[in-house]
Amino acid sequence: MMTRLYPRAATGRHLTLLSLLATLAACASSPLERRQVVLYSEADMTARGEAAYSQMRAEIAASEDARATRYVQCVADHVVEALPEAQRENTRWEVTLFASEQVNAFALPGGKIGVYEGLLDVAINQHQLAAVMAHEVGHVLANHSNERASQSALRNVGFGVAQILGASDTTLRALDVGTQLGLFLPFNRTQESEADVIGLTLMARAGFEPEESISLWENMAATAGERSPELLSTHPSPSTRMDDLRARMPAAEAELDAAQARGATPDCIR
């Protein structure tokens, strides 16, 4: 009797936690009005972002190319200047150009931006670099890191419930694969597409040419190796991204016209 009652009690606690987490998830939405699972505070995520940034700076050397560093800082300054007032003034934005051939960039909660030198060989002008940086900042604006951390917490609770209920190893493996294909990969693709939309608007508001975002992805596609099928990827295919960007280009061009009327004309020279 006691052996049976203990798992039931534990299961009840996990189900109560799942119910609580689901209730909390209904309280947040992204800038594009998508419902979100956000379980952590802004202070928590800022601390995580700052810790990750400090670790990366300790592990990867900063670029010694002073001109390239000034160029990246210039583009970052214009992107940050186009942010909503709260994100611009309440966050200490910081950018580092890392001495690495990776074709990548990132932005973390707490206003930390990283660009790798290798990206400058693919994002060949200020507009294309701004497209990447605005996209990465879009992840921060949409609280995507919080979502991913929250989804991971929910997944761990779900697996704990399955184990308490006595699920076999085969069932747990099936749950793991099903979770990845049915939730986490599509969810991450949703985040990437959302960041594309936010980034396109942001770069245009900063005065950068939004059409260059499509040229960027053409460059990316030309230099990329063999890709996994989109179903098994956390990122949309370049062709999907370019189609989505083209569909939103009229609105972005209107943002650019308004930015230029305000005098936003970036002139960042590499």
Could you give a short description of this structure?
64% of the residues lie in helices and 7% in strands.
The largest pleated sheet is described as: 3 strands, mixed
Give average pLDDT, whole number: 80
Head-to-tail CA distance between termini: 74 Å
User: Taking Cα atoms only, what radius of gyration do you get, to the nearest Å?
Assistant: 21 Å
Structure description:
This protein is globular. It has one domain. Strand 1 and strand 2 form a beta hairpin. It is mostly helical and 270 residues long.
Task: Describe the protein's topology.
Blueprint: H1 2-25, E1 28-29, E2 35-36, H2 42-59, H3 66-81, H4 85-89, E3 94-98, E4 105-108, E5 112-116, H5 126-141, H6 144-164, H7 169-205, H8 212-223, H9 238-247, H10 249-261
Parallel strand pairs: 3-5
Antiparallel strand pairs: 1-2, 4-5
Helix pairs in contact: 1-6, 3-5, 5-7, 5-8, 6-7, 7-10, 8-9
Keywords for this entry:
disordered N terminus, three-stranded mixed sheet, mainly alpha, two-stranded antiparallel sheet, 270 residues
